[in-house]
Design goal:
Rna Polymerase Sigma Factor, Chain: A, 182 residues, mainly alpha, Arc Repressor Mutant, subunit A, 0% strand, 2 domains
C-alpha cells in the first residue's frame, strides 16, 4: 500500500495498525535526520517522538499536494531547526539566507562534493552552518529534487538553488582549510 492509501484508511478507521505502519516506514529516516542535525542521541530520540506526535495530530491536514515523505521531512527539518534555535537562542540559523533570484554564477560541480572521502565529508559538514548542512543532505543524501527541497523549506526554487550554491561554496572552503589535496 502507498502512504496515501494507508493515511486514508487510518483517517477513516482510526485503526492504530495503519499509523504503526507509517511509523515503521519512517522512524529510522526521521531519527537519522534528527541525529544528523541535533548531534545528540537523546535530543534526536525526543525530537523523533515529537515529530511523530505532530504527524499523528496533523495527519488529517496532509493534503497530498506533495509526497508524504516530503511532508514528513518538512516537519522533521522544521522541528529540528526550532530545537537548534532554542538551544542557540538565535533566530538566524541560516547564514546568508537571502531570496536572491538573480543568475547563479560560478556553479560548483556536484562532483567536487561527491569525490570527498566520507570521513573528510563528515568533518566538512560539521564545519559549516546547520542550515547549509541540512540543504546539502537533502540534495545529496536524501536525493530530493529542488522542488521538493523548496516545499520542505517553504522557499522558492531559486532561493533553494542559491542556498545550495552557497552551501557548496562553504563546504569546499571548509575542505580546503582542512585538507590540501583538492
Amino acid at each position: 500500500m502507498t502512504d496515501a492509501e494507508i493515511i486514508q484508511i487510518y483517517l477513516k478507521s482510526r485503526d492504530r495498525r495503519y499509523f504503526h505502519t507509517l511509523y515503521a516506514r519512517y522512524s529510522v529516516k526521521i531519527y537519522s535526520r534528527c541525529i544528523s542535525l541535533l548531534k545528540d542521541e537523546v535530543s534526536a530520540q525526543d525530537a523523533m517522538q515529537e515529530v511523530f506526535m505532530k504527524l499523528f495530530l496533523n495527519l488529517s491536514k496532509f493534503g497530498e499536494r506533495a509526497k508524504f515523505s516530503t511532508w514528513v521531512y518538512s516537519i522533521t527539518y522544521n522541528h529540528c531547526i526550532d530545537v537548534i534555535r532554542k538551544r542557540k537562542k538565535n533566530a538566524s540559523v541560516f547564514s546568508e539566507d537571502i531570496e536572491n533570484t538573480g543568475e547563479i554564477a560560478a556553479e560548483i560541480s556536484d562532483s567536487a562534493l561527491l569525490e570527498m572521502e566520507v570521513s573528510r565529508l563528515k568533518v566538512v559538514l560539521e564545519a559549516i552552518p546547520v542550515g547549509d548542512k541540512a540543504v546539502l543532505l537533502m540534495k545529496y543524501q536524501d536525493e530530493m529534487q529542488i522542488r521538493e527541497i523548496a516545499e520542505a523549506l517553504n522557499k522558492s526554487e531559486s532561493a533553494v538553488k542559491m542556498k545550495l550554491k552557497r552551501a557548496k561554496e562553504k563546504a569546499l572552503k571548509a575542505y580546503r582549510e582542512r585538507y590540501t589535496d583538492l
